[in-house]
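Hi R.,

Here's the chain you asked about this morning:
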Amino acid sequence: MRIDLHTHSTASDGTDTPAELVRNAAGAGLDVVALTDHDTTRGHAEAIAALPEGLTLVTGAELSCRIDGIGMHMLAYLFDAEEPTLLAERELVRDDRVPRAKGMIVKLNELGVPVTWEQVARIAGDGSVGRPHVASALVELGVVPTVGDAFTQDWLADGGRAFVEKHETDPFEAIRLIKGAGGVAVFAHPGAAKRGRTVPESAIVEMAAGLDGIEVDHMDHDPDTRARLRGLAKELGLLVTGSSDYHGSRKTVSLGEYATDPEVYGEITRRATGAFPVPGTGGA
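And here is the predicted structure, written out as tokens:
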């Protein structure tokens, strides 16, 4: 089985629609794909309706969190999307994305970059607006060559010249909310140092009592980081996942480039009580 448990669609900051994403996942030879858009589940219905035969969809989301001033992401799998407490928190995070993006635009204008809200809103479309949309605007304007190059201290990285904070959930609270909605919690790309400051291992140790796993095999982790995180996961009794963090054309990584072991996937599905994987039946 080929299993990719971290992808994004136009419901947040990917470039594939949810329907395109599941069709592309099937075309890439995947057996299981998780749709984990940022702080939203709006793409799930479209993905399910288009799900090709032979491909299973894991519904999920990537929740924006912050601890001790450090941003981090928590992958939530197979939770009840209508559970009111987690739903309210996702909406609170999502609603803060627009004023945050507008604040970044103000800072960029002060730095002499002629980006506009209209430009960023056009790029975001119906998705939950985020830094990658602002980064894409910088690419359009020729300020940086790629989206990744916008995530530096010069521009949009945490603490960068145009960075603006938004409401983000405490990770311990995020784990509690995910579990309360019957879901499974996995710390996304914990060693992605190229994105900025990373959460110290001591914090992961503290989270381990509620956390289900950590994402180890990821494009932003070099071999030494993967080995260190794999050892930490073993020490703490945490599941190890791998996934592409696919964003369509916004990133160079391909669907299925990094994958999760079938036994780990089986354990995730066994632990979840809020929702079940959806088998494809040859959707529209």
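One quick note: Residues 13 and 132 are 6 Å apart (CA to CA).

Cheers,
M.
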